[in-house]
Structures are given as structure tokens and as C-alpha cells.
Design goal:
The active site is at 70, 143. Belongs to the catalase family. HPII subfamily. By secondary structure, the chain is an alpha+beta fold. It has helices at residues 5-11, 50-60, 156-163, 179-187, 192-199, 246-255, 259-269, 325-329, 348-364, 446-453, 457-472, 477-487, 492-502, and strands spanning 73-82, 101-110, 125-133, 136-143, 213-214, 219-222, 228-237, 275-284, 310-320, 342-343. Strands 1, 2, 3, 4, 5, 6, 7, 8, 9 and 10 form a ten-stranded antiparallel β-sheet that branches. α4 (179-187) packs across α12, α5 (192-199) runs parallel beside α10 and α12 (477-487) runs antiparallel to α13 (492-502). It binds protoporphyrin IX containing FE (HEM).
Length: 532
């Protein structure tokens, strides 16, 4: 297997400590590493033992904060190759040139559990891909489910507080089975569609190799002529999507909490490389309002029969990391890492994510220079006038570190913007400043019902069992009842089965949906019904 540009770059940072004589971090040879320096054979340890102090201090500082979500993850290197040029839709070089192989780094994760939690729990899985393109890093920070719990980023801290272990007792760990979670769900009914996915077998994947991935949001492709299309991204595993059954998932959690990482690591070591095809759903901007849902709503899919998934390339994961901390833990993905030809939309969930990732990484990775950590460095050159800060490695030459200047204009000591650089898509935006949500985001149940109706009988049984198990763990009677009533809006029979199993009153009709109309926009329904 030949080295790609990222491998070559990482090579400069690799250190082989085997059979090397020990030194301190200052390069001084160490003569003794078992006994600290003492005043007398049985006396106190001396402060002047610089080797002891350095060794202990470094150990004391080995841990960094775990990710606030997606803490438990496992990653691998690989390559992406393009089957067919997307030039018609995007000017992103790695999606136009079929002769190019783009290095990638992919981290899979569970969302809720802490860094040491079991891997086969019922949860959403993260599927984050960093493409090291010639035009900069592009991150596709996705999940294994195509929709999300909430529509607006401002609710994300509430969602996460509800799903993480309860603060007074840190229970339960990595499970969605507790009162706060179902309380959140019943009081935030936009979560209905996502909950159906989570309760389905997609919540307990068999392997990271057998998992789909989704960008979830609607993004934008922009071509060289400046023409934009909406796009949704999909990863399709070549092995197909497969799940565990709940009984297996529980037993494996006990016997092998590392089940998914072991499976990925072993398959790569034995050269049975995991492969995923990249698919795109593309929608003309003119068709923005042709659906009975809002294309900016992250709780909705675009039905594949209306907007087919076009397969455009393949990613192969072919190398395990050398060092989990240096690579898997220190990697920093961000939805805001885009390249020319890929742009954002006004999806209110995406808009909030654009703020959150760098913000959290500033503390998780110790200040503003984490782009210099080898795994985060682009493979193309990067220059600007940003300077200093904690953990700065680069030695920028010259007295001038500002733009516009006369002094350095003919020297390489400063950098200036370039023609052909990233230009934000000039979408026309107008309106009053409001905190409301468009009425077009109000339907929380139609797609959840479609999902239920698309399931086979066995899949429906699994979903019903998952609901019964999870809501069965809820202690508060009112939360139990509210949850049952909410899912009567998806399917009355399903809700009756859950009610019977968890000791709630059977819902009599589907009618308890809480939809908060947006006063400022309630006269106008901006979404037209599909014309066909
Ligand atoms: C990780 C925020 C929604 C996928 C994270 C992290 C934060 C975060 C703070 C930790 C990042 C780090 O420490 O490096 C948010 C917010 C969201 C949101 C505020 C909504 C407003 C989503 C959605 C997806 C997603 C919709 C999937 C489409 C991921 C993944 C990771 C992650 C895959 C782990 C990345 C890794 O492996 O390092 N998110 N997230 N998140 N998020 Fe989100």
C-alpha cells in the first residue's frame, strides 16, 4: 500500500522509542529510573530530583477533557476515490477529479457514554470523516441516522443534559432508559422521528463496518459558475447495514465492551478493509418549497423515491492509527470546515453547530493552536497572520504579522488573501429578526409514521420491544403516560402495546401532539404541497 500525502506528513512526527537510551525531556541521559533521589537510604525524597519531578508532572497532566458528547470513539485512516465528476454541481476539487485519491480520517463514536463506556448500547453512532483535500480540510461530521432529535441548536444543551447520566447520581451510563430522557422527548415532540430510528435496530449496529452514515443537514453545492444546489450526504457500507438484536447487544456489552473497536481494528489488521460508498441527494434551489416539509428541517429526510441517492465515490479504511491519543483523541472535526464548492444552508441546527465545535475544541485541545496537531493539519500549505497562543509550534519569520502592509509585501513574511479563495454563497436573506420557528417546521409525526409503516413485522416487533424496555425503566408515572400518548401520534397500536407493557393507560386516540404555532408566521404556510 503506497503512502498518501497525509501518511507522508504524519511520518515526520512519528517517533520510535524502542531500544533508545532514556533521557529527560531536556535530552539529559537518565542513569536511574527506579529509585527517587533521597537524603539517606531511608530518608525523604529530594525536590532536586528533576527526573522524578518531570516524570511525575507529565503523568499528572496526561488526561485532557473527554468530548462533551461522542466521548467514546474509534478511528482509522483511509482514502476516498471518486467514481464520477460532480463538476456540474460543485467546484470542490476532490469531487471533480476522478484521478485523485483523497486521504481521509474517520472517527466512529457513541454519543452518550463516557470515554470508557460499552460500545453496543442503544445509541446514535457518530460517523465523522475528515477529507484532507488539496484545497483544505473538509469535514463531514455525520451520524448513522439521517435525522436528529431537535430542529434548533439552542436546544442541544438541554437534549444532552437529558440524555447524559443524571447529575445527582451519575446513573444510568450510556443508556437512553431514564426519566429525564423520556421527559425531554415528550416535551420536545420534534424528536418523534429520531426516536423511531433510535428504537429501531439502527440503534444497535452490528459493526462500524456495517453502518450507514448521514450528513443529516441540507448543505449546498456551488459550481464554478456560482450556481447552487441543495445536497444531502450519505455513506452506504459495501457490506450492507446490519444490526445486533437487543439480547446480543446486552450480552456483548458485558463480555466485550470494546466489541466495535475490536471488530474495526481486526478487520483492518487482516486487510479486510471496510468500504463505504458516498451518495448524494441533489435538489435544485428552485425546488426548495415543493415538499410538505421544510428542506431546512433536520428532523426530516428527503424521500429517496423523490430525490434518489446518487452514488459518486468510495472510501476505504486501510490503516489503523499508530497512537490513539495523538490521533483519535486529538482529532478535531467541525461542520464549519468546508472547501470551495461546499457551503451551508440556513438549517437552524447546522447554524448552531458552526459555533459549537471550535468553541469546545478550544478548551478540549488547549487553546487556539490545535490546527497544528499533526492529525488536524491540512496536507496543503496553510499561511495567515494568526500568531502566538498556548502550544504554538510554528516559528513564523519576520516582524510583520498583519495585513495590509507595505513593509513585507515583497517578502514571504506575511500572507494576503488570494483570488479563487473560498467565497460564501451569496444567498438573498431578508426578514424581521424573530425568535420563532417557521410553521413549515411544525409537522413532527408524518415522517415518524412513514418510518413505522415502512418496517417489516420483525422490525416492528423489535421497535415495540425497545420502547417497552426503555419506557419501562421510567419511574415517573406522568412521564411514562406522556411518552405513550406522544407515540399514539405515530401509531395507535404501537402506543397501546407500549402502554400495556409499561403499566400506562392505553391511549384512545392520536391527538396529544404538542405543536407550538409561531404567532408571527401563523397566517402564512410557506411550504406548498408537492405538485405531483
Ligand atoms: C461531537 C455539538 C449535532 C455529529 C460534538 C461535540 C460537540 C457537538 C460540542 C464534541 C466535539 C469535540 O469535542 O471535538 C453539537 C451541537 C449539535 C450537534 C451543538 C446541534 C446543535 C450533531 C449532529 C450530528 C453530530 C446533527 C450528526 C449529523 C457529531 C459527531 C461528533 C460530534 C460525529 C464526534 C466527532 C468526533 O468523532 O470527534 N458535537 N452536535 N452532532 N457531533 Fe455534534
Amino acid at each position: 500500500m503506497g503512502k498518501n500525502r497525509k501518511d507522508e506528513q504524519l511520518e515526520q512526527f512519528r517517533v520510535d522509542d524502542r531500544n533508545k537510551k532514556m533521557t529527560t525531556n531536556q535530552g539529559v541521559k537518565v542513569s536511574e529510573d527506579e529509585f527517587s533521589l533521597k537524603a539517606g537510604l531511608r530518608g525523604p525524597t529530594l525536590m532536586e530530583d528533576f527526573h522524578f519531578r518531570e516524570k511525575m508532572t507529565h503523568f499528572d497532566h496526561e488526561r485532557i477533557p473527554e468530548r462533551v458528547v461522542h466521548a467514546r470513539g474509534f478511528a482509522a485512516h483511509g482514502e476516498f476515490e471518486l467514481y464520477e465528476s460532480m463538476e456540474q454541481y460543485t467546484k470542490a476539487g476532490f469531487l471533480c477529479d476522478t484521478s485523485m485519491k483523497t486521504p481521509v480520517f474517520v472517527r466512529f463514536s457513541t454519543v452518550v457514554g463516557s470515554k470508557g463506556s460499552a460500545e453496543t448500547v442503544r445509541d446514535v453512532r457518530g460517523f465523522a470523516t475528515k477529507f484532507y483535500t488539496q484545497e483544505g480540510n473538509y469535514d463531514l461530521v455525520g451520524n448513522n441516522m439521517p435525522v436528529f432529535f431537535i430542529q434548533d441548536a439552542i436546544k442541544f444543551p438541554d437534549l444532552v443534559h437529558a440524555i447524559k447520566p443524571e447529575p445527582h447520581n451519575e446513573m444510568p451510563q450510556a443508556s437512553s432508559a431514564h426519566d429525564t430522557f423520556w421527559d425531554f422527548v415528550a416535551n420536545n415532540q420534534e424528536s418523534a422521528h429520531m426516536i423511531m430510528w433510535l428504537m429501531s435496530d439502527r440503534g444497535i449496529p452490528r459493526s462500524f463496518r456495517m453502518m450507514e452514515g448521514f450528513g443529516v443537514h441540507t448543505f449546498r453545492f456551488v459550481n464554478a459558475k456560482g450556481i447552487a444546489h441543495f445536497v444531502k450526504f450519505h455513506w452506504k457500507p459495501v457490506l450492507g447495514a446490519h444490526s445486533l438484536v437487543w439480547d446480543e447487544a446486552q450480552k456483548i456489552s458485558g463480555k466485550d465492551p470494546d466489541f466495535h473497536r475490536r471488530d474495526l481494528y481486526d478487520s483492518i489488521e487482516s486487510e479486510d478493509f471496510p468500504e463505504y460508498e458516498l451518495g448524494v441527494q441533489i435538489l435544485a434551489e428552485a425546488d426548495e418549497f415543493t415538499f410538505d416539509f421544510d428542506v431546512l428541517d433536520a428532523t426530516k429526510i428527503w424521500p429517496e423515491e423523490d430525490v434518489p441517492v446518487k452514488i459518486i465515490g468510495k472510501m476505504t479504511l486501510n490503516r489503523n492509527v499508530d497512537n490513539v491519543f495523538a490521533e483519535t483523541e486529538q482529532v478535531a472535526f467541525h461542520t464549519g470546515h468546508v472547501v470551495p464548492g461546499i457551503d451551508f444552508t440556513n438549517d437552524p441546527l447546522l447554524q448552531g453547530r458552526l459555533f459549537s465545535y471550535t468553541d469546545t475544541q478550544l478548551i478540549r485541545l488547549g487553546g487556539p493552536n490545535f490546527h497544528e496537531i499533526p492529525i488536524n493539519q491540512p496536507v496543503c500549505p496553510f499561511h495567515n497572520n494568526q500568531r502566538d497562543g498556548y502550544n504554538r509550534m510554528t516559528i513564523n519569520k519576520g516582524p510583520v504579522s498583519y495585513h495590509n502592509n507595505f513593509l513585507a509585501s515583497n517578502t514571504p513574511a506575511t500572507s494576503s488573501p488570494e483570488e479563487g479563495g473560498f467565497e460564501h454563497y451569496q444567498e438573498k436573506v431578508e426578514g424581521r429578526i424573530v425568535r420563532n420557528r417557521s410553521d413549515s417546521f411544525k409537522d413532527h409525526f408524518s415522517q415518524a409514521t412513514l418510518f413505522w409503516n415502512s418496517m417489516s413485522n420483525v422490525e416492528k416487533e423489535h421497535i415495540a420491544e425497545a420502547f417497552c424496555f426503555e419506557i419501562g425503566k421510567v419511574k415517573n408515572k406522568s412521564v411514562k403516560q406522556q411518552s405513550v400518548d406522544m407515540f399514539a401520534n405515530v401509531n395507535l397500536e404501537l402506543a397501546k402495546v407500549i402502554a400495556d407493557s409499561v403499566g400506562a393507560n392505553p391511549p384512545t386516540s392520536s391527538g396529544s401532539a404538542i405543536t407550538k404555532a409561531s404567532p408571527a408566521l401563523s397566517q402564512e404556510n410557506m411550504v406548498k404541497k408537492p405538485s405531483t
